Amino acid sequence: MSTPVLDTIEWLGHDGFAITSGDLTLMIDPFKVEGGKKANIILVTHAHFDHCSTEDIKRLTKPDTVIVTEPE
Prior knowledge:
The chain is 10% helix and 42% strand. By secondary structure, it is mainly beta. It contains one helix and five strands; from the N terminus they run ββββαβ. The longest helix has 7 residues, at 54-60. It is globular.
């Protein structure tokens, strides 16, 4: 069994991060992200505007993106 390898962990500014492994991109709390590739998974930790930026989420989402967040 092979061990997964992370290609990059990138700070996006504020409290946001992008983690890439192969073709998979996971973003955590994207806020005021300039450019960047679309995410496969977006994690939103809570509903504050600077963690749950609907503008950034819409821009970074593709048709099969999974968004994981809490009910609020």
